[in-house]
Amino acid sequence: MLLGHDLSDGTPHARLANLLFSGFDWDARRIAEQFQRLAVTSYRSRSDEWPWASALVQQLAKKIATSARLKKEPVNALALAETLHIKITFVKRYVAGLSASLVPVLGGFEAAIYKKQSGTNLTKKEKFAIAHECGHVLFFYCDGKIPARIIPRAIEGHKAARREEELCDHFASALLRR
Questions:
Q1: 53: closest CA among 82, 29, 31, 70?
Q2: How, if at all, do strands 108-114 and 86-91 pair?
Q3: What is the pLDDT of residues 63-121, one digit of tens each?
């Protein structure tokens, strides 16, 4: 069983969930730590397949969806972003093929969500983009300073970059029940 691993070795990637996921219950933090440990292990072994990853990010999303602060279904993506220390900025310009971007900053992240139209109501696509960017947090650890990646960011178009994007899509879909 994936959740049966010991995660207490004190390595930096084992600390992420304790800091960035501190707003969630112990089980959610444990699943996030499990994901990170397996991601680092898979990366170091140069594995092209991460068969465990999709199920684990979906399990984490479901656990987060039931946390006390985010009990609504579907999850309020903006509340989740705030809990994960992500400051959301809406950008009114549209960049072809890009719906959002996430940048680590001191104590958390900033995310730009690209909107085609102005207005206060979020579209399904914008909610998905926010939830997707929240998924990228799984690939970082933070010790209270600027978050750092647990594995290097792969070159766009590379298998590892596509894998991360797909996992963030699975995470967002599970959160938003799509």
A1: 31
A2: parallel
A3: 887 775 666 666 788 888 998 889 999 887 666 667 788 999 998 999 998 876 666 78
| Domain spans of the chain, in order of start | 10-176
Question: Could you say which of 3.40.50.2000, 1.20.1050.10, 1.10.10.2910, 3.40.640.10 is the CATH number of the domain covering 10-176?
Answer: 1.10.10.2910
Q: What is the DSSP letter of 5?
A: S
Contacts (Cβ under 8 Å, ≥6 apart) of 142? 16, 19, 20, 85, 107, 108, 148
pLDDT digits 0-9 by tens, 107-120: 899 999 887 666 67
Based on the number of CB atoms within 10 Å of its own CB, is 122 exposed (0-12), middle (13-18) or buried (19 or more)?
A: middle
Asked if 138 contacts 35 with a C-beta cutoff of 8 angstroms, the reply is yes
Rounded distance, CA 130 to CA 125, Å?
A: 9
First to last CA, the chain: 26
32 touches 60 (CB < 8 A): yes
CA distance 133 to 36: 16
Q: Which amino acid is at 9?
A: D
CA distance 119 to 178: 23
